């Protein structure tokens, strides 16, 4: 596994641990539409993330984020926050920040470090 992927998992777990008691949630939706990065079963993916990276946040079943079978949650997220390059998700670990009322506040690229959006999370938690 590449170090960038390990860093993303690790930083997500750190953010969740730090802010979960303040109402912060991470909802993870694995997707195998990008280079076959999530080839395992739903159970294998959860086991991998929870064991190797101590992910305590919900990890849902695999979904499609683009195409004819796009999951409704991604249809909604993309309709509220398109990206500079169009609405399609470009790679795994695209991130959306959503407030408690369900408004999509921001969208972050797959390469954006989760810790780099901590200031946005803190601001959102302070305003709720």
UniProtKB/TrEMBL annotation:
<dbReference type="InterPro" id="IPR036249">
    <property type="entry name" value="Thioredoxin-like_sf"/>
</dbReference>
<dbReference type="GO" id="GO:0005829">
    <property type="term" value="C:cytosol"/>
</dbReference>
<dbReference type="InterPro" id="IPR029760">
    <property type="entry name" value="GPX_CS"/>
</dbReference>
<protein>
    <recommendedName>
        <fullName>Glutathione peroxidase</fullName>
    </recommendedName>
</protein>
<comment type="similarity">
    <text>Belongs to the glutathione peroxidase family.</text>
</comment>
<dbReference type="GO" id="GO:0004601">
    <property type="term" value="F:peroxidase activity"/>
</dbReference>
<keyword id="KW-0575">Peroxidase</keyword>
<dbReference type="Pfam" id="PF00255">
    <property type="entry name" value="GSHPx"/>
</dbReference>
<dbReference type="GO" id="GO:0006979">
    <property type="term" value="P:response to oxidative stress"/>
</dbReference>
<dbReference type="InterPro" id="IPR000889">
    <property type="entry name" value="Glutathione_peroxidase"/>
</dbReference>
<keyword id="KW-0560">Oxidoreductase</keyword>
């Amino acid at each position: 596994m590449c170090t960038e992927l390990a860093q993303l998992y690790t930083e997500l777990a750190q953010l969740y641990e730090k802010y979960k008691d303040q109402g912060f949630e991470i909802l993870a939706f694995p997707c195998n539409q990008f280079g076959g990065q999530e080839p395992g079963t739903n159970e294998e993916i959860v086991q991998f993330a929870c064991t190797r990276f101590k992910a305590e946040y919900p990890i849902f079943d695999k979904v499609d984020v683009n195409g004819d079978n796009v999951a409704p949650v991604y249809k909604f997220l993309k309709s509220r926050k398109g990206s500079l390059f169009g609405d399609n998700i470009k790679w795994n670990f695209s991130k959306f920040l959503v407030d408690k009322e369900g408004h999509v506040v921001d969208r972050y690229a797959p390469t954006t470090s989760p810790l780099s959006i901590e200031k946005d999370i803190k601001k959102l938690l302070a305003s709720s």
